[in-house]
Amino acid sequence: MVDREPYQGLSRKLVLAFDVGTTFSGVSYCILDPGEVPRIQSVSRYPAQEHVGGDSKIPSIVYYDRNQQVRAIGAETRQGHVVEQAEMEEWTKLEWWKLHLRSKHLTAAHIKDIDIPPLPQGVSAVQVLADFMGYLFHCAKTYIIDSHANGLGFFASFGDNIDYVLSHPNGWEGVQQSQIRRAAVMAGLVPDQGREAQERIRLVTEGEASLHYCVTNVLASDTWSKVPIEKSELDNSSDTEETPERGVIIVDAGGGTIDLSAYSMNSGIDTGKAMSFEEIAPTECRLQGSVFVTRRAHAFLEEKLEGSPFNEEDYIKRMTEVFDETTKLRFSTAEDPCYIKFGTMRDKDPSYGIRAGQLKLQGIDVATLFEPSIQSVVEAVEKQSSSSPIIISHVFLVGGFAASDYLFKQLQSRLSATGLSVCRPDSHTNKAVADGAVSFYIDHLVSTRTARFSYGIKTRVKYDEANHEHRIREHKRYTCATGDDALPCGFSTILPKGERVSETKEFSDSYRLTDESKDELCEIGVTLLAYRGPFKAPSWVDENESDFSQLCTVFADTSDIAQDLEPKTRNGHTFYKVSFDVIILFGLTELQAQIRWLEKGVEKRSPASIVYDDEV
User: How far apart are CA 588 and CA 205, in angstroms?
Assistant: First the structure.
């Protein structure tokens, strides 16, 4: 548990955390009053929401009319008159739209764009996110006003002193983070100007938010009672006593993604904090959330009912909806049959297992619908455990999909064989991300993170006739500005995969740029690449090119030093040279990069911001 200190700020501030999920979304918040201990609260009333309670969330559904205007959001979309009007006026119902924002690197064989309900003509996924976040802000504002004395005046007292914490799946990268920030501006959360406005937005992975939730609500202190021991120390130890607990994996099982993050607790000696955590393995993100169980159920029903009068679009759609809302959650064992109640007493087709308006399914068939998701989690847990330098002892399952007893029991059974204890918090785990995102803001428990990929830049390599790797690339050889023969396809690693990075640690390497004209050196633009292959420091970009992706471009204005450059001569060629360093900061939840150079003996740096390239 976290022992919070009173807020030390000079003025009142509101922190809003939006958990925009694939299937359900929610808001948590914290009012920071000077001298008061912060307390995390949840928005538990929404328009048209039937069930009011501490675990209240709304469906991530949006209706757009034929003019691309929003007509209903959340629980409103399930009201009878809205459904009727939507059908009459041909509105577009958007579900699972969050998956349109996913990184292309998460796209696997089991999901394609065609599998996700299409967006309305002229409406982008970023616009949908903006519309949805604008709605969540309206709901939060209304709830806070209605829940406090002198509500209007109370909310007005915040002014622009409102910060936002926006969570996203572990597998979302710079492009998606940039899209989230753009959507926040489009939603009117912050103005589209100035660094100060952008600093009011904090981004956090769903895995890290879930860790904060578990620490503040679930994990007992004795889980972290012993200092973690490195695996290498354990291997060299002759001690045969029981191994002390070391670290945990947080599995946030949601509607679209399943996010896994591994942590150990820092003793506090290095950070000066009473409690802090280190990420001890690269995060994992799998597109195997609960909606994919439903998607497999839809395909299964179409195949099972082939030849039956009930194999019609309306019947299959209704059966799939019932499966998603009830059958999937209640399913607990492959030994017992389960039922989809979709019609009336007169609906029957015994040869297909349909009696009295319900379809009977064998438990073993339903189990197969869960299997890909279960296998994916087990594989990801084993991958994180094997890559962690610290022994993992516990797995904590949170998120909306964690409510599935079958998922939980299967993970318990399969992972216990590897010595892992699987636990599920006895509370509202679907609040984990929203509450944890607020805790991330006020408690800031993670001090060290682990690089998921190797990051670096494409470089020029001086050609060496004696080098076999160079000779097989001889056809790419060219003469550069210095007159030397060179190859254009080298890779320079700046931050290797698996490196554990503190928030303040910088990773850098030195480079030079040459050109026959100094005017061409007035601006430096360096493209940062992410390498997703098996090696920590590959040498060549043209080997397994699909393992490399263009992450972002970092710019620096070097016009002042370019004008003072003196010409150099080599191999009969006259050229100009600028020397600089590329710096990567990875300790925060958003990767940052800079270019550093010397100007008349004084260190200069570009702003710590990056321009993200669009995915294709």
Answer: 11
| CB atoms inside a 10 Å sphere around CB 586 | 24
Please tell me the pTM assigned to this model. 0.88
Residue whose C-alpha is closest to residue 407's, from 340, 331, 322: 331
| Residue 593 CB coordination number (10 Å) | 26
Residue pLDDT, tens place only, 261-299: 999 987 554 545 567 899 999 999 999 999 999 999 999
Please state which CATH number belongs to domain 219-424: 3.30.420.40
Show the beta-strand stretches assigned E in 193-310.
201-205, 247-253, 258-266, 276-279, 284-286
DSSP code of residue 349 = B
Task: Pull the structure tokens for residue 404.
Answer: 């599935």
| Cα 358 to Cα 369: distance, rounded to the nearest angstrom | 19
Please tell me the predicted confidence (pLDDT) of residue 429.
66
The pLDDT score that the predictor gives to residue 193 is 67
CA angle 185/189/193 to nearest 5° reads 50
Q: What angle do CA 520, 525, 526 make, to 5 degrees?
A: 130
Torsion of CA 465, 466, 472, 478, to 10 degrees: -20
Is residue 341 within 8 Å of residue 315, measured between CB atoms? no
Of the pLDDT bands very low, low, confident and very high (cuts 50, 70, 90), residue 501 is confident
Cα(568)–Cα(78) distance, integer angstroms: 72
What is each CA distance from 212 to 175, 245, 280, in whole angstroms?
25, 19, 16
pLDDT at 425: 78
Closest CA to 131 of 81, 76, 170, 82: 76
Q: What is the pLDDT of residue 585?
A: 85
What lies within 8 Å, CB to CB, of 171 at 6+ separation is 102, 103, 105, 106, 257, 259, 283, 284, 285
Question: Residue 512: what residue type?
Answer: R
219-424: same fold as 13-204? yes
Instruction: Say how far apart CA 198 and CA 575 lie, in whole Å.
Output: 41
Tell me how crowded residue 414 is: count the other CB atoms within 10 A of its CB.
17
- What's the CA gap between 132 and 114, in Å, rounded? 23
Q: Categorize the per-residue pLDDT at 112 as very low, low, confident or very high, splitting at 50, 70 and 90.
A: low
Confidence of residue 240 (pLDDT cuts 50, 70, 90): very low
Q: Is the dihedral of CA 531, 537, 541, 543 positive or negative?
A: negative
- Extents of the domains making up the chain: 13-204, 219-424, 454-612
Provide the phi-psi class of 498: left if phi over 0, else alpha when psi is between -120 and 50, else beta. Answer: left
Structure tokens, 480: 């550069």
Q: What is the percentage of the chain residues whose pLDDT exceeds 90?
A: 72
Check pLDDT > 80 for residue 191. yes
What are the structure tokens assigned to 52, written together?
A: 């009011």
**Helix 290-304 / helix 313-322 crossing angle, nearest 10 deg:** 140
- The C-alpha atoms of residue 591 and residue 467 are separated, in whole angstroms, by 35
Q: Does domain 13-204 have CATH number 3.30.70?
A: no
